[in-house]
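Let's practice the habit of predicting before peeking. Look at the sequence and jot down your guess about where helices and strands might fall. Then scroll down.
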Amino acid sequence: MNTSAHALSAPGMALPAACRRWPWSALLLALVMLWLVVVPFALMALSSVKPDGLVISEGYTLDHFRALAEDGQWGQIAWNTVCFVGGSVLLSVVLSLALAWLTERTDMPGRRLVRALLVLPMAMPPLLLAVAWILLASPRSGMLNQGITAVTGLPALFDIFTLPGMVFVQTLSMVPAAYLILMALVRRTNADMEDAARLSGAGFWRILFRITIPILSPGLIATALLLVIGGVATFDIPGAIGMPVGKFVVSSQVYAYVFQSVTGLPLYGQVGVVGSFIVLLTVPMVYVYQRATADSGRFVTVTGKGRGHSRTALGRWRWGALALVLGYFVLSTLLPLAVLLWVSLMPYQVGFSVEALSLLTLKNHAEVFGNPRIHQATVNTFLVSVLAATLVVALSVWLAYVVVRMRPRGHGALNFASFLPMAMPGVVLGVSLTYVYQLVSPGFMLGSVWILVIAFTTSYLTYGAQTMNSTLLQSSPVLEEAGQMCGASTVQVLRRVSLPLLMPAMIGVWIWVFSHGLRELTMALMLQSERNMTLAALLWGFWTMGNATGAAAVGIWLTVAMGILVLLWQLVMDRDKEA
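Done guessing? Here is the structure:
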């Protein structure tokens, strides 16, 4: 993916002057981006200097900054965040690179099946993964601990309610996305220099650290930055594992300010201060990520036959490598799904045993299909996900066409603006939208499904826009220019030439956004009400209220739906690559 300014300005990438006759299109798009991204952040920053944290209140104060500066817990929260994000990102990148190298550069058996197994964990929402590992590795009631104690008599060996436990689960959750990025990078990178070094007698580790990693370093840096930004934004896992035992990170502390303050009222002023600092911290990372992804092509040796390189013979380690992959799949998908299915079939939470088989019941699953509250949450979830996916695709195509083809003055700023939603974690974006629609339409928007549609659209716009940018950059404008020369209008060219070329990518983006909308928890919680309850928010409510069996039943069906969508998305993306 190359979205740098110099690439967008390359000769031959723009249509003739016909497109430039429509300056209102770029202007309108700029206003939309301003409303979606800049206005929420500006109002959040304003709330940090308001006495009660509400932007509509009178007066200004720095009391919220002083309160946070005098709060001694923030040192520990910052350290927890650094350890949680840094540890999970490091482990995810290392493991994903190893898995990508095994599937793309070695003779490991079953590589095609392995690729599918490494993508499937995306079907497990992070909250469900955390819930499953709590059920497995809780020091008191975890099934693994109970099984070990029953067999060996030893006390509990695992305690998931620790910072290492949070890092472990977050790593399992991050690996599929990192693997997909690094797999494509490893597949495209020419291995001639590695083969030459191998023929010259260089050993594996020397080749790895002197050739492979330096060649891949731009992509590794970009992937790590993306995971860092996502890690700061993550609430699901810290909320489920860390909050019950008082181990807060930045995202869970913001949630606590809104829903668990000692005063009983949301501390919007403190949220404004913390949110502003988060955005100011992540915006430079977003800029570096954009530059890294834009310029990475200058550093990677690529050929037109990415699969033509020789594969490293693993010898006796072939089956050990396969065991590593299967071990990850068991920990990230198979074992969590098994424990969730078991708990969903029990009348109450009970460990696995032959005696417990007599308790098997479908009552919890019948409740999923018979509970009106679950029905409404399902309708809301699908409605929000469908609308958000459709809006993301429409805005992404619009943005890509303006930035790549029309290239008005300031198109680079528009392109960068499409990255900015990455800098706003879900907890921050949710509160920011509350500020916006308190001013605009508190009666209609707040607590409705429409505010969730806006939140999801804003959050997922980066993925859609960059996918469309990349696709449009890779397609020649010759057919569009021919249509213009034959007298077709810009709208006709878009409808009959550009959109058909973009259709596979549009379908892929739609499925990706729709599936992520089904699992989105953070923004759904920050903006929840009885009118806009989603399945993810309902699942959180079941879990936090102690209804583990109900949460497991909802989670099983949500994972099934997610699994189907992940497979469809992968199928569409694979066909797009082949085309």
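How did you do? The radius of gyration is 25 Å.
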